[in-house]
Amino acid sequence: MRLPLLILSAGLVLLTATASAPAQTLTRVTNTTVTGIPNGISISGTKAYVSDFGGGTLQVYSIANPLAPVLLGSCSAIRPRALAAADTMAYILGFGLGQVTTSYLTALYVSNPATPAAGRVVLFGEPPIYIGASRSLVCAASTIGGTVRVFDSLLNQLSSFTASATAVVLNGTALYLNFYGTTTVYDLSNPAAPVRVRVVNGPINVVNGNRACGLYGSLYSYDVSSPLNPVLLGTAPLASGYGLLAMTGTTAYTCESYSGMGSNNLPMKAFAISQASAPVLQATTAASASATAIAASGNYVFLVNQFGSLFQVYALSGTGTGTRSSQQNTMGIYPNPAHAALTMTPPNPAASVEVYDLAGRVCLTARVSAGIPLDISHLLAGMYVVRNGSATQPLVVE
């Protein structure tokens, strides 16, 4: 199976860790060869939605166990190139090689992931389009045609206006149109009459809660607690101007841009963006050659590679030199890396704690009380995942 990635900038910033605060690590925990040409991925809850251009399908995977994604179902889609998922809907943008003047936007019902089904299809007689989606709205914008269309969740068009974009982001009823590093903010509280609010001198490509990030020569971090008034918190310089970007909690992940052909073993980085300052590099690793799409959930990063036919999962673990994300240690595991024992604060004390190895096997099941050491002396050195209820946490055993 192949998964899609979004193209954005990546950075090359070095940060020295102190002895008292060991650097975090990004570790590859899944490396699967898949069929087709995956070139888009979007995550909603415990589901990953993947567009496969080669097979002409939307694929739905369960990532409840990030170490072992499970294909739940698939359905046909018109030349899928990119997608966005929101709640019980997914939206696929399709256009063919050599047919850049015709694009298709398809709504897909994914409330039953075993049998996803295509709904309305909207045809655009213009170059490839960028899409963004929320629970109630979908926006499509073209780079060259300069037209933005606003739809409801079933792709009934509500309005249109003139503007160009290279990225489309919906934050509730706030719309961010990023055009080569400059973001224009629109108010869609009345989607039939969009209002242009302001221009931000910087890119916005992804939003998670009250934080947003963008890539254009640098990694940009914003406070969007007031969605119509993004406030720049800081930037981190990047080695190249473009690449892939994903965000979860207060961690942003970047991956160097791919060449479009051949193999490039390029670095992936994790940045802490929880502080009201510039992003802080927490971890770096050599990522997949020619990665083409990226998404993140919890402590996991999902990469797809349309050239190498790879689906890869990376885990972020350890403590960094900056302020930690609340999702980076949701179970209060200490120490990590661990040796013979660890203590933790399970978020769901009524549920058992399970430890999985990289093959998805359960190596340990126990009831754990906050602050009481858990014996892990029988575990071999390596990478594991700790699960308590719906919470998961990477664990390194030395």
TrEMBL record:
The keyword Transmembrane does not apply. Coiled coil: none annotated. SUPFAM superfamilies: YWTD domain. Residues 333-390 form the Secretion system C-terminal sorting domain. InterPro entries: LVIVD, Secre_tail. Residues 1-23 form the signal peptide. NCBIfam families: Por_Secre_tail. This is T9SS type A sorting domain-containing protein. It comes from Hymenobacter negativus.
